[in-house]
Amino acid sequence: MNLDNLKLKLRQTGQEHLLDFWDNLNDQERASLYKDLEKINFEEVNRFFARCQEQKGSEGKLDDILEPLPRELCGSILQTPEEQIKKYEKAGLVQISNGKVAVLLLAGGQGTRLGVNYPKGMYNVQLPSGKTLYQLQAERILKLEELSEKVTGKTASIPWYIMTSEATKEPTQVFFDKHDYFGLQKKNVVIFEQHTLPCMTFDGKILLEKQYKIAQAPDGNGGLYRALGTSNILEDMDARGIKHVHAYCVDNILVKLADPVFFGFCMEKGADCGAKVVQKASPTEAVGVVCKVNGHYQVVEYSEITTKTAERRNADGSLTFSAGNICNHYFTVDFLKAIVREHEDDLIHHVARKKIPTIDNNGQPIKPTIPNGMKMEKFVFDVFAFAR
Known about the structure:
Blueprint: H1 3-12, H2 27-39, H3 42-56, E1 66-67, H4 82-97, E2 101-106, H5 133-152, E3 160-164, H6 169-178, E4 189-193, E5 196-198, E6 208-210, E7 213-214, E8 216-218, H7 224-230, H8 233-240, E9 244-249, H9 260-269, E10 273-279, E11 289-293, E12 296-300, H10 307-310, E13 323-332, H11 333-343, E14 350-354, E15 358-359, E16 365-366, E17 373-377
Parallel strand pairs: 2-3, 2-9, 3-4
Antiparallel strand pairs: 1-11, 5-8, 6-7, 9-13, 10-13, 11-12, 14-17, 15-16
Helix pairs in contact: 4-5, 4-9, 7-11
């Protein structure tokens, strides 16, 4: 333990307050805090904070630079002839049976909003079967493998990559072990962990959760791209010959995993990535929309456009900005490689103002009633801007 070097590093990065209670700690607590601090790249964290601050001036309504998606790049399951849908489906199933398709689950969240203190994927959604989200999704993978074999006559497995967080990785691993991976082969279920970032005050100071513990949070579902690199997931995909990936969030109970129709459509378009969306129910529905901003593909939150723009309609009466984002995406592995190796650092963190448990100047716990700090997160869809 080189305390002098750590003090110097903290002083140089303006975070020396993190050792304010050092003299109060026992040996175990000191070792825990020192370990946490050694893992943090303080220069990087300060840079992330500074970039978030720079974004403040650019916040506001985006109406003037908003464009709808080009019609030729969009498809609708309701408006596409059945014959064409079957063609898309067959193309997707062929890729599955050739071992070219993987599924990537974003499962870093706890089930707090569901009233439980364990990972969302372990939640029993109160179906008569008593099945959890993880089980439902595992069984859909098995069914898709079966369907692709039935149509093509070839057998192949669909690898399932599950991105967890520090809080959900261990219980998720134990859960899958306990349930024998719900019939999937253990080697085809790859559980990895996203990174965390310190929580910060609005003036850039890292918060302490306890005298010996840094307040930290997962780096958002867009932390996927850093985790793909540091966990060697792309190398694993390469070794398996994977070319196409379906990414989605764990709490989507209706998700069609690696939907062959969706994959077939994206492949025909030669897309780097794709978004499966739902049509907005009303102009002011609180959902982000997929569109173009300054010529680049983007998901724009409902709060970033005025009601007037949200209510814009096409000649046929349909909403101009109707593509509701549900975090249901297609990626080529080549595109993911380009993001991880060339663009990951270009992805800007978004600020979430939160009520973060911390301590006061006397080291006593505080449970704030109003936002007292920020979490910095990247979003999985921010890579759309780099698609061709």
